[in-house]
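cron nightly-structures :: item 1 of 1
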Amino acid sequence: MDYSPALMTDMYEYTMLDATLRDGTANRKCVFEVYTRHLPEGRRYGVTAGTGRILDALERFHLDDEDLKFLSDRKVVSPETIKWLENYRFSGSIKGYREGEMFFPNSPVLQVEGTFGECTLLETLVLSILNYDSAVASAASRMVSAAKDRPCMDMGGRRTNEWAAVAAARAAVIGGFKGTANLLAAQMYGLKAIGTAAHCFTLVHDSERDAFASQIAALGRNTTLLVDTYNIEEAVKTAVEVAGPELGGIRIDSGDLASLAQRVRNQLDALGATNTKITVTNDLDEYALAALQTAPVDSYGVGTMLVTGSGAPTCAMVYKLTERESADGTMQPVAKKSKDKASIPGRKLAYRSYEYNLADCEHVISGSEDELAAYEPKEGWKDLLVDYVDHGQIDSRYQGHDAIMAAHEYRARALAELPITAQSLMKGEPVIPTETTVL
């Protein structure tokens, strides 16, 4: 489907643009900030994901003649605004947390700087990407911790919207997963693709033996056979008879997975298939994975709970104006004072401090551009912000396959720097506090 990311937005972004172009405030310099006021209930940390997708979308964030005609015909904006939009390209700057970085309440995950007109159009797209991708990456990270050293694979494509499935596959890898069943995600981002056969493949054959023989003939002895269509014990016996002890793996998709894995492991060993791996699937989440830690399982396929954020499908991130140019040309910090929704004024710096090589605090520093330029963090503090876009120029290092793999590795290191309670599945407060200083 050919579409413009510039229309993946709420109508009021364009009506605000139209009104501010009329009154002259659209050209005021502004700083917008993306942050969350709180983590999902009981979660200890979040994982940043989606920024690379924002950069991909930014490259295509403009309107063609058909898009402009739609806005005009619907009278969403005035003819003067249509004229302004004809040449729209984001010319501002964006900085924020790198993908794979941990975030906490009030962490300035992304800061967008430019004119009000060009920045306000990005709000809905930025939030839709960051909220979903970070939710999936955060859930994936918890699952990977619960799985210990056993690889997790994304199998959630059939449990969500078709485009969300592609985004989820990418975010899952950032969160620590090793591959995906989604071929479009594998193609777009160079991810490892996995998959063999479903129960219908067994059912369409005259016997389970015929199905196994067909799969092995097509995919080789190293394939993974699904053994719970009828009777697992008989299926494992048949699988080894057909493939020999060189059978690559078997998959179990139902029942008491721990006890079944134990019985199947003993059966495989008794049949001489000591190197055959066991994969389990079936509505797994981080708690189910933790319960399987002592079972002889080699890998996991995770679906529904991954693509729904394991009960937290959004990070409740918001996009708020924190600084704007006043009528006299000076930059002025601004903030909401709404009950339970107050924001912190000013542009931000973000650091993390450590004691004995473990993170102990997130430090958010707010102030004017000059004040922040002169700010000296304490020794040993880690700067959490990277530059993604500089006056319209996108840093391509944060796009594509290599960026995803770098984020995958970075998440593991960043998590290891947090107190070990971050990996607890017990509900609790964020594992480190966030301290905000207004200069």
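cron nightly-structures :: done
The mean pLDDT is 96.
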